[in-house]
Amino acid sequence: MSSMDAHKKKERVRVHFPGAVDSHFSQVLEIREKMEPIDTFRVMDTDGTVLDPSLEPKVTEEFATKIYKDMLTLSIMDLILYEAQRQGRISFYMTNAGEEAYIGSAAALELEDEIFGQYREAGTLLYRGFTLDQFMNQCYSNDLDYGKGRQMPVHYGSKAHHFQTISSPLATQLPQASGAAYALKRSGKKNCVMCYFGEGAASEGDFHAALNIAATTSAPVIFFCRNNGFAISTPANEQYKGDGIASRGVGYGMHTIRVDGNDVWAVYKATQEARKIAVEKHKPVLIEAMTYRVGHHSTSDDSSAYRSKKEVEDWKRHDNPVVRMRKWLEAKGWWDESKENAHKTEMRKAVLKSFAAAEKRKKPAVSELFNDVYDKLTPQLLEQKKEIEELIKKYPDHYDTSNYKAE
Amino acid sequence: MASLIRSARLASNAIFQQRLPAKLLHTSAKSHYAAANSPPPAEGFMPGVANSKLIKHTQHDALRNPELASVANGETKKMNLFQSVNDAMAIALATDDTACVFGEDVAFGGVFRCTMGLSETFGRDRVFNTPLTEQGIAGFAIGMAAMGSTAIAEIQFADYIFPAFDQIVNEAAKYRYRSGGEFNVGGLTFRTPCGAVGHGGHYHSQHPEAYFAHTPGIKVVVPRSPIQAKGLLLASIRDRNPVVFMEPKILYRAAVEQVPVGDYELPLGKAEILQQGKDLTIVGWGAQLYVLENAIQLAQKRMPGLSVELIDLRSILPWDVETVCNSVNKTGRLLIAHEASKTQGFAAEIAATVQERCFLRLESPIERICSFDTPFPLIFEKFYVPDMIRCAEGIERAMKF
After folding, report:
1. Cα–Cα dist B353/B317, whole Å
2. Which residues of chain A make contact with B126, given a CB cutoff of 8 A?
3. A224, β-bridge pairs
């Protein structure tokens, strides 16, 4: 080592400022615009072929086919409920088409890991055993809906399934997930929180708040971004300028993974590893799953107004998560055309049966309008309840309660 | 921007406290203002409070309250309002292992000293700092409560609660209702210092209860004194609904009472009649009650024999309609005074309800004595707030109508 080199080396001095303890002083003025883009982890190609034999999933036939069947069931349920909305039988719906591979993330969790979803994660509930009847009851706001008919369709929630009730505001679930994870950590349970959101929601202040507070409090939470390319109509390239959402994770001092969101096994593996970090090291992890929203945003949206039908068809044909998984299963000899047809027929029947049953049921009792605002009815609410009860008696035709459960 | 002011204030406040011997810190606000040639503390002074009849100066006085029956045979200790808030949180933490206290600068004791000693006693995992993010604090607290824990979250100033407004209004308030009772955030309490202090200007003075009072699903509470603060805060923490607990920060040091050292709760949703009377009902809450007390004295000098019923509303949501309306049905006159600006302030709600229920008993228009409809103006504060003169004028108008 020359004395010159030694001199230079000596100059590499750590800063003494409390705000960035790992930085060194430098005489080079660096104006950094970009970091190296984060790679996208994948296990299978679009034909369902495992690219690196060491990544071959070590799973049972039963486990793998359950994931696939749930993906298929989700598509069938989506098709039927989408049509039901079009016929005016339910008021609203949101499909999962193109993103079904996120079920791989549910498969990597334990049942007691708490889920905070955005709204397009019905597949995780399906995976956990939420029944078709339970889905339909919610979408029909009937007397068996856990939410007592108070929220729009797809706002599912179930304590038994550790799935916190969906709310429409975007990204509000993120800081809640951080707090819930902190509570889980304090309880000593070997569980984590799983929090889903979209790349659009990541523009909300709550996203920043949540990741930062999860990092500083060492909360065992997995933030799972479904980057499906669109926030309603706004494309990802108008949503942010950085390297996706994953690049931000590093900025928060957080373990970060980017994964092919159309590859069930990549999603599964990434979530497994993330869960280990969350539960064993009590640290938050950010997963960005890259995918494409094949369906419209919701039944209130027609995506042909902002993207070509051909583009959507190309995605369906060339990178379809359901097809990729099916091909993998078929190569294993665990699935074939007859099983495919049998499952589809069985599920279509089951969905239609649940659908018809849910449609027939009455709405919750009118008194449920006032319950659950507080743990007990306040004097004001008791009075207001009496007011509507008297009006219902006085104007029975106007306030027809025949479709509501008897009190 | 706000954070700059906050950290500057925090720094000056902390230095202020370090310079003063501990003994001085516990002397009356008035004397230490005179003693130290230092900037005033963030919470300001309210000299009238020390001699107020609303303050319980002796143990006997304190324990006479039937609402304190559960601790009637216990000890009391001299505490100011920040100490009684601290005492309530210490009891909450000691009696509930899931309880955590967190917010900005909470770990070292808080900029108003409300959390002093708690992290040392209960550990940094239960009493901790958060990053500077009100929406994050609120969301975090909701998540904790949704898992069945008790979350006591501090929003450093009520003026900065608005980034958390969405979390409080759209999330906390609707959590139970929207899930059909599958989930709730009953263990959630937001504590936040509020109100005028003499030098707080736009962003260290607001009293934003009315925004939250328009939100079914949350409770809103404002205490007037150390005894009240302890009992109402413990009730808020243990109540199975989310509560926004607004602490009039001018009272943190100014109000000193003999506070029961035991564990007790005061009822939410229940007003308290502080003084019985027959000619006029006056409703207020928080620090405004001391202004009203002085205004009543002034009015009684001008109108000898005037008999006033003074009510501390205590809970803004849900509020005690029955106690207020019973009183107005007796007196026939009502004056409501609050520090928040007039239009759509909570006095409007009370006035509307009272005219519905007491219409035939009213003998004069309902008086609303409030701050004016401007932002909180630094140097014009004494012209802006509903001070003793304006309240006394309001009493006279009501009586001479």
Report:
1. 14
2. 186
3. A196, A287
Judge if B360 and B395 occupy the same domain.
yes
Q: Does residue B7 share a domain with residue B73? A: yes
Answer yes or no: A168 catalytic. Answer: yes
**Which tokens belong to B258?**
């003999």
- The verdict on B163 and B92 lying in the same domain is yes
Of the candidates B43, B104, B134, B367, the residue annotated as catalytic is B134
Note which residues in 209-228 of chain B have CB less than 8 A from chain A.
Answer: 216-217, 219
Structure tokens at B156: 């450093």
The domain locations on chain A are 53-360, 366-407
**Domain A53-360, CATH homologous superfamily name and number:** Thiamin diphosphate (ThDP)-binding fold, Pyr/PP domains (3.40.50.970)
| Number of independent structural domains in chain B | 2
Q: Does A151 sit within 8 Å of B140, measured CB to CB?
A: no
Residues B133 and B276 in one domain: no
Domain interval for residue B53 = 2-260
pLDDT of residue B45: 75
pLDDT average, residue stretch A379-394? 98
Q: What is the ipTM of this complex?
A: 0.95
Amino acid letter at B4?
L
User: B233 and B239 in contact (C-beta within 8 Å)?
Assistant: no
Q: How far apart are the C-alpha atoms of B46 and B28, rounded to whole Å?
A: 10
Q: Which of B32, B43, B204, B349 is catalytic?
A: B204
Residues A47-85: tens digit of each pLDDT: 999 999 999 999 999 999 999 999 999 999 999 999 999
- Per the CB < 8 Å rule, is A206 touching B139? yes
| Rg (alpha carbons) of chain B, rounded to whole number | 20
Assigned token pair, B105: 């600068």
Per the annotation, the verdict on B134 as an active-site residue is: yes
For chain A, how big is the Rg over CA atoms in Å? 25
| CATH code for position B122 | 3.40.50.970
Low-confidence ranges of chain B (pLDDT < 70): 1-41
A355, two tokens:
């659908």
Only one residue has tokens 């507080």, namely A374
Q: Which residue on chain A is closest to B103 by alpha carbon? A: A213
Measure A252 CA to nearest chain B CA, in Å: 12
Does residue B51 sit within a domain? yes
Query: E-assigned strands of A172-323?
Result: 193-198, 221-227, 230-231, 234-235, 255-260, 285-290
